[in-house]
Amino acid sequence: MTLATTHSVGVTEKPPLRLRLQQKGFDGVTLLVLPAVIFVLALFVYPFLYGLVLSFQPKEGGWLANYSKFFSDRFLYGTIMTTFRLAVPVTIFNIALSVPVAMRMRLMRRQKVLTTILVLPITLGTVLVAQGLLSYLGPQGWLNRTLLAAHLISHPIALLHNYWGVFLSLVITGFPFTFLLMLSYVTGIDGSLENAAATLGASAAQRFRAIFVPLLIPGLAITFCLSFVQAVSVFPSAVLLGAPAGPTRVISIAAYEAAFEQYDYSLASAIAMIMALVQLAIVAIVLAARGLFYRGPAGSGKG
Amino acid sequence: MTIASRDFRELRLDGVSRGFGALNALKDVTLTIQRGEFITLLGPSGCGKSTALNCVAGLLPLTGGSIWLDDRRLDQLRPEDRGFGMVFQNYALFPHMNVRKNVGFGLAMRNESKADIDRKVEDALNVVRLSAQGGKLPGQLSGGQQQRVAIARAIVIEPPLVLMDEPLSNLDAKLRLEMRAEIRRIHQYLGSATIYVTHDQDEALSLADRIVVLRDGTIRQVGTPAELYSRPAHADVAEFMGYRNIIRTEANPGSNGWVNVGIGGAEIAGTPLEGVQRGRAIAAIRPEDLSPVGNGPIVARVETAEYRGRDFYGTARTEDGTELYFRSEQNAAVGEVLHLGADPARVLVYADTAASRPAELAPNGIAA
Q1: Residue A202 backbone dihedrals phi, psi, to 5 degrees
Q2: Quick check: B86 and A300 CB within 8 A?
């Protein structure tokens, strides 16, 4: 209908704005993106920029005072290492656990049931998991009592309020996420490739090394980034299950203390910015490393 | 440890069976393949031909029977220990390796020296005429080129047996013809025994030394292309080999060893098979053998006609409603009445038994 009108008006005249926009890919449907844009602007971009500006307006000193304070105080800059010491092993552990499970699952028929069971912890939330672990792993918890009763240990093992408490909780809450991602990457690798490698004489280990791993690397990189970022932002379990004053004093705790114990929002913002930068740096490094490997489709070509 | 040697006399499938739960995909298949022979497994989809191939390759364990290479039992070996070359329907090229690496993969797994691998890979790429593409990734190649890489990868290990699973089904018609000739040429050049799975009878006829027709997991007939083309052993095989006129009828003994069968109200002479002389029977005639002749006994009205360059193919219906596929050298106009006839040697008459009833003639199908 619109076209007919345009023709009757004549060729020399410019087509109406609506048509011109349409040709560039803007039409009524484009408006549907507005809520998301507003959401991102209001809840992400604005707070981020606000925090960035705030971090350069310290309570005292020059505009970089917060940053120099952070990097001169071991109690503060040490939190980066502490965070890494938790997030990196947890991420690697989760991936290392996911890959074999996913590889086995891809051959199974009742995938859905097992996937549901494995993914269930994701619905629980960190605090509930922490609560459960507190009663399960405590000195009087089932685990220690069982081990004591079986005379496997003579004293309760300390799994709470230290590094391992946080580690375990991060594994439990992080594994489903890591696993789901890995499962989709693993099942994306065409099974006939493995068959082809087998008929060419490759043993199971050789098939894994020569076919599976190279095709999985892009997926591993992405999964590592996402799982890592999730683990870095650990806060509840570090407080509830860890030792927030010592071995599990992660960077988010430092930010929390600055904001709500010292009421120094400016310093807290600076710490948050540093946290974001550190995460970005890791993600950038991992993705850059991924670029060194094959990144194409994991199928077997056309067909 | 692999059996990478072409020096064998025969590969023997002995009562090979494979079930999937309650379904028997392969039932008691016994077959001997001679050194250097090109065998095609031919059958409609679901007949068990790919299952058979995967069983030989070791990708599917047997549920019964055994497989022997001369006096070595193979069916207990893992696929990597059998040393057969396999070409997959979707090519299954390793997407992260270039063409040379793909082709050399089997040699690398055999721990051959770098120099040997390079030389053999170059030779194999020459055979499939892809020497110039060695450095490319599979994703940068056309479908036909990918298929040739897959073939090179399978033959470079000099396997005693090459297995091909519908390797041409993903190619367009023109490329398929070219690749068919290519496969024939490579086989003649290398001389390795080949099992080739296809559902395309033209492919089977043009490539095979012997064709194995499978249906519902059992072997229906084994024979040379000429035997299968002109003398299918059973009505269902005939249907699959291009005998499009499959007519349920009555047989009566005729003169000179022929039998007479009724088709569309007319009586014509045919060749008795399966010892049929009298009673319920199935007549099978290729469309190209049923043509208008001066005194043709079958009277039928043309319903469709299509031009095929040198001649016309069409369908015609007789007075009693039997639909016939025919060939004509003259233009056949729709509605025209033809007098069709066929050489008795080309009219095959089979017993009408449940076991060999073609799919088209379901138990309650076309009336006799």
Answers
A1: -80, 130
A2: no
B40 forms beta bridges with: B196, B211
Nearest CA in chain A to B58: A199
Residue A6 above 70 pLDDT? no
The minimum CA-CA distance between B29 and chain A, rounded to whole Å, is: 22
Q: Which of residues 169-208 of A touch B (CB under 8 A)?
A: 190, 192-193, 195-203, 206
Q: Which homologous superfamily does the CATH classification assign to the domain defined by B10-229?
A: P-loop containing nucleotide triphosphate hydrolases (3.40.50.300)
Binary contact (A196, B86; C-beta < 8 A): yes
Three-state secondary structure of chain B: CCCCCCCCCEEEEEEEEEEECCEEEEEEEEEEEECCCEEEEECCCCCCHHHHHHHHHCCCCCCEEEEEECCEECCCCCHHHHCCEEECCCCCCCCCCCHHHHHHHHHHHCCCCHHHHHHHHHHHHHHCCCHHHCCCCHHHCCHHHHHHHHHHHHHCCCCCEEEEECCCCCCCHHHHHHHHHHHHHHHHHHCCEEEEEECCHHHHHHHCCEEEEEECCEEEEEECHHHHHHCCCCHHHHHHCCCCEEEEEEEEECHHHCEEEEECCEEEEEEECCCCCCEEEEEEECHHHCEECCCCCEEEEEEEEEECCCCEEEEEEECCCCEEEEEECCCCCCCCEEEEECCHHHCEEEECCHHHCCCCCCCCCCCC
Cβ–Cβ gap A302/B91 under 8 Å: yes
Q: CA-to-CA distance for A94 and B222, rounded, in angstroms?
A: 55
A187 pLDDT higher than 50: yes
Query: According to the model, what pLDDT value does residue B300 have?
Result: 87
User: Which residues of B are less than 8 Å from A302 in CB distance?
Assistant: 91, 143, 146, 170
Per-domain residue ranges for chain B? 10-229, 233-351
Asked whether the CA dihedral A188, A189, A191, A192 is positive or negative, the reply is positive
Residues 6 or more apart whose CB falls under 8 angstroms from that of A149 comprise none
Residues of chain B in contact with residue A192, where contact means CB-CB under 8 angstroms, are 88, 90, 92
**Which residue in B2, B92, B106 is closest to A300 by CB distance?**
B92
CB B32 within 8 A of CB B10: yes
Q: Does B59 touch chain A (CB under 8 A)?
A: yes
Convert the pLDDT of each residue in B285-323 to its tens digit.
999 998 888 888 888 888 888 888 888 898 999 888 888
Q: Which of B268, B266, B234, B246 is nearest to B323 (CA)?
A: B246
Task: Reply yes or no on whether the pLDDT at B190 is more than 70.
Answer: yes
Please give, rounded to a whole number of angstroms, the shortest distance from the CA of B93 to a CA of chain A: 5
ipTM of the complex: 0.81
**Contact at CB, A201 and B106, closer than 8 angstroms:** yes
What does the pLDDT average to over A232-260?
A: 86
Domains (ranges, CATH) in chain A? 33-293 (1.10.3720.10)
Mean pLDDT value of segment A22-41: 87
Q: B55 pLDDT band (50/70/90 cuts)?
A: very high
Query: In chain B, which among 61-100 make CB contacts under 8 A with chain A?
Result: 78-86, 88-96
* Averaged pLDDT of chain B: 87
Pairing relation of β-strands B161-165 and B193-198? parallel
Give dist(CA A17, CA B211) in Å, integer: 67
A112 touches chain B (CB under 8 A): no
With residue A43 as reference, give the H or E element that holds it: none
Q: Which fold has domain B233-351?
A: OB fold (Dihydrolipoamide Acetyltransferase, E2P) (2.40.50)
Q: How far apart are CA A228 and CA A226, in angstroms?
A: 5
